[in-house]
Amino acid sequence: MKVTEVPAIAGAFLFEPTPFTDERGLFCRTFDADVVRSVGIDPDAFVQDSLSRSVRGVVRGMHLRSGEGEAKLVRCSYGRIFDVVVDLRPGSPTYLGRATVELSGDTQATLYVPAGCAHGFQALTETADTSYRIDREHDPSEDVTIAFDDPELAVPWPLPVTLTSERDRKAPGLAEVLRTLEVKAP
Hints:
Radius of gyration: 16 Å
EC number: 5.1.3.13
Shape: globular
Strand content: 35-45%
Distance between the termini: 26 Å
Helix content: under 10%
Number of helices: 3
Pathway: Carbohydrate biosynthesis; dTDP-L-rhamnose biosynthesis
Number of strands: 13
Enzyme class: isomerase
Order of helices and strands: EEEEHEEEEEEEEEHH
Largest sheet: 6 strands, antiparallel
Family: Belongs to the dTDP-4-dehydrorhamnose 3,5-epimerase family.
Function: Catalyzes the epimerization of the C3' and C5'positions of dTDP-6-deoxy-D-xylo-4-hexulose, forming dTDP-6-deoxy-L-lyxo-4-hexulose.
């Protein structure tokens, strides 16, 4: 498994497995505790796995958690997604940096999103399943959403946005969120 640092976001990593394919299909290891540990991430910290299924053009995000934040491993297990991470940790050397990466079921690459970073994605295929491995139990009182179309974020969504949740449509812009957000520095 190859590990690459994501330069625009301090502490973010891309884990790229080596899929084995033959006439039966594909097999690969999508999580390896030793590899995760080798870059300073505690593999035992993850407490919850979740899955979302989206249709082409759907945007989910930009989401994060206040307080201690929430680190996550994100993988597109089926289809393709355009994934976005924005660093909102005031003490980070990449504060307000933005990284985009395409994740797909063909590669099974996993993106590590550090706590304190906003995350969102757009489904690029008719169906896209996105898996999350999260290091904290969900607490709705800590949910923070930033407008996915905020000009200050300037996310270059590759497709017209076909659908979002009501929460995402009504989200405030980045400037408003930053005025009230409490995220602990790394």
